[in-house]
Specification:
With 319 residues, the chain is mostly helical. Helix content is 74%, strand content 3%. Belongs to the G-protein coupled receptor 1 family.
Length: 319
């Protein structure tokens, strides 16, 4: 494993600053309020899913176990980025130390990678449920579910640690190292290096393939078998119910993998720093916000559990 040496060949103070979204004070206030509102909605929506799944015995199944884990990831994922982003939007541009930048990158890549692996695990769960319904409870045991989640986190940790350590062995140019982004993401930090980064770019592509391409291909294979099984169902109602259990997951997959692929797998010659920052807003705010909405609005079990929880809470308060 490569050693992380923050002081290697560094000139000037070992810190970075993020580029401002806008210099207009009124627009900064509007952006702050907008992003704060989205962040609070993300926290509330995903926390509601976690609480409902944990407190309702009818939702203690592999599918909802993975859904609550995904919601927990989304809470952590956005919390790594958004609070610092909000403080920089409204207040003065506060520098972030080299170690702080590395820590943010490590947790951001770890949580994002785990998110991608977990979506592949959820596709496998749907495959077993639809293609092998009689053996579902025998295959998808609680132990196997926990092992798959732990494996996803472990693989993400290893890849993120290697990538972050490799990047922060680079020397960075200038005394004012301004990142054209709102977080310490890999591509914008690499652009600040004053050294040959071809090896680092190659490693980034390899990690991108392992995190994005391989799981996405596994998801596609799962859905080929799922589609084949759904088409063999004789009743239209049965086909509709089987498809509805997969459509929410497929929507999230297309959003997550599509946006991340545009940032991490495009050739560097065709990328724009401003475009990367705009796309990053989608998978930082939109995807974590849509996850609870998609899964609750399209899932009768979760909607029913939420409704019962609200009614029970209202009844207990009235007494």
């Amino acid at each position: 494993m490569l050693a992380w040496n923050p002081g290697l060949n560094q000139s000037g103070p070992a810190e970075f600053v993020f580029r401002v979204f806008t210099a207009v004070p009124a627009l900064r206030v509007l952006l702050f309020l907008l992003f704060l509102l989205l962040y609070l909605l993300i926290l509330c929506g995903n926390t509601a899913i976690v609480c409902v799944v944990c407190t309702h015995s009818s939702l203690r199944t592999p599918m909802y176990f993975f859904l609550s884990t995904l919601s927990s990831l989304e809470i952590c994922y956005t919390s790594v980025v958004v609070p610092l982003m909000l403080s920089n939007i409204l207040g003065a541009q506060k520098p972030i130390s080299l170690a702080g930048c590395g820590a943010q990158m490590f947790f951001f890549v770890t949580l994002g990678s785990t998110d991608c692996f977990l979506l592949a695990v959820m596709a496998y769960d749907r495959y077993v449920a639809i293609c092998h319904p009689l053996h579902y409870t025998l295959i998808m045991t609680h132990r196997l579910c926990v092992q798959m989640v732990v494996g996803s986190v472990g693989l993400a940790l290893v890849l993120s640690l290697q990538l972050t350590a490799l990047i922060f062995t680079l020397p960075f140019c200038g005394r004012r190292r301004e990142i054209n982004h709102f977080l310490c993401d890999v591509p914008p930090v690499l652009r600040l290096a004053c050294a040959d980064i071809r090896v680092h770019q190659a490693v980034l592509y390899v990690v991108g393939i392992l995190v994005l391409t391989v799981p996405f291909l596994l998801i596609c294979v799962s859905y080929v078998f799922i589609a084949s099984a759904i088409l063999r169902i004789r009743s239209a109602e049965g086909r509709r119910r089987a498809f509805s259990t997969c459509s929410s997951h497929l929507t999230v997959v297309l959003l997550q993998y599509g946006c991340c692929s545009l940032v991490y797998l495009r050739p560097r010659s065709s990328t724009s720093e401003d475009e990367d920052r705009q796309i990053a807003l989608v998978y930082t705010f939109v995807t974590p916000l849509l996850n609870p909405l998609i899964y609750t609005l399209r899932n009768k079990d979760v909607k029913g559990a939420l409704r019962n929880a609200i009614i029970s809470k209202a009844a207990s308060e009235s007494n």
